[in-house]
Write a structure and sequence with these properties.
Layout (H helix, E strand, L loop, with lengths): L1 E5 L7 H4 L3 H4 L2 E5 L7 H8 L4 E4 L8 H4 L7 E4 L9 H6 L3 E3 L6 H17 L2 H9 L17 E5 L3 H12 L3 E5 L5 H6 L3 E2 L2 H7 L2 E4 L13 H6 L5 E4 L8 H9 L4 E4 L19 E3 L8 H19 L15
Parallel strand pairs: 1-2, 1-3, 3-4, 4-5, 6-7, 6-9, 7-8, 9-10, 10-11, 11-12
């Protein structure tokens, strides 16, 4: 019987998200809900499987790991982009790579960015911890009102435009910048396009909404973070590698800025990481796309993709790593 591994079910949502019986009737399906300790651990545990169904941006699949999975015939990816997965190497090896649609992940990510901004501004995590510890307001700083403040959106695509709308509803002013942004596109989203340096110096909140690429990697470095106002908030629900990590650790460690982060250079984030000890950092465990409706679409299409492959008629085939959906 074909062996299928369903990986990265760290939130224990896969089984309840769709009906797996059409697949379990034809294959040995095993669910993995704990991250692998390293590449050797992943290679050892995954070696017996012919089909892998994975959640994007969790387990890394570099070429070195793929080479250690000789039985792998089909790789099912949620979404169509994954910076941690060498889909080009898989395709070159003749492995069928299938993708899914993204579902309402744009809305779920933008909503989380809004939530992180509010949580950071009003010190919601600190307030929650104070109440649970019997301290009520003691030790919880007062935060600012966001109405009348200015947000700078670095990236104004599908998700950034949604965030712009949310911030307008709060009565915030919206500035935006990206390498490809035009005045017309900015106006359509209710934003004003300004140079990056001007944006960083003027705003009270910066929210990142760029796709990670070689052009955008490290788009915010130490000099960029230094331009931000004292006490300004940086929200990142996009990709950690958009920001120089050492510079960000320094900026929050010196209490120059507040950070609200959903994405990290290493996931799961090690408990010993400086971010976990910084009181001016709000952390969520890469929940941007982690919403019920998104998982339902992801896993339903993963099952469909695997069944189609077993039938010899694969669907939603990723033709190249540059393909989007």
């Amino acid at each position: 019987m074909v062996k299928i591994a369903v990986l990265d079910d760290w939130q224990h949502v896969a089984r309840a998200s769709t009906d797996w019986t059409p697949l379990t009737a034809r294959a040995d399906v095993q669910f993995f809900d704990v991250p692998f300790t390293d590449e050797d651990d992943a290679a050892r545990q995954l070696a017996p499987f012919e089909i892998l169904l994975v959640v994007r941006e969790r387990t890394p699949f570099p070429a070195s790991l793929i080479a250690r999975l000789p039985r792998l015939k089909m790789f099912g990816l949620t979404g169509a982009r994954a910076g941690l997965i060498d889909t080009a190497d898989m395709i070159a090896r003749g492995i069928t790579v299938c993708y899914t649609s993204a579902g309402p992940s744009g809305s779920s990510t933008a909503e989380l960015a809004l939530g992180l901004m509010l949580a950071a501004a009003r010190r919601i995590p600190a307030g929650d911890a104070a109440v649970r510890a019997g301290r009520f307001q003691l030790g919880t700083e007062a935060g600012p009102v966001l109405e009348g403040k200015t947000i700078g959106l670095v990236g104004l695509g599908r998700i950034g435009a949604k965030m712009a709308g949310y911030c307008h509803a709060l009565g915030m002013h919206v500035l935006a910048w990206s390498q490809n942004l035009t005045d017309e596109l900015a106006r359509a989203a209710g934003a004003s396009r300004v140079p990056k340096e001007e944006l960083l110096a003027a705003v009270d909140v910066v929210s990142l909404h760029l796709v990670l690429s070689e052009r955008t990697r490290g788009i915010l470095g130490a000099a960029d973070l230094a331009r931000m106002k004292q006490g300004a908030i940086l929200v990142n629900t996009a990709r950690a590698q958009l920001v120089d990590e050492a510079a960000l650790i320094d900026a929050v460690g010196s209490r120059r800025i507040v950070a609200a982060l959903d994405v990290f250079y290493r996931e799961p984030l090690p408990q010993s990481h400086p971010f976990t000890r910084a009181p001016n950092v709000v952390l969520t465990p890469h929940l941007g796309y982690g919403a019920i409706e998104v998982y339902r679409e992801y896993y339903q299409q993963c099952v469909e993709n695997a069944i189609a492959f077993l039938d010899g008629k694969p669907i939603r085939i990723l033709q190249s790593p540059a393909q989007g959906h």
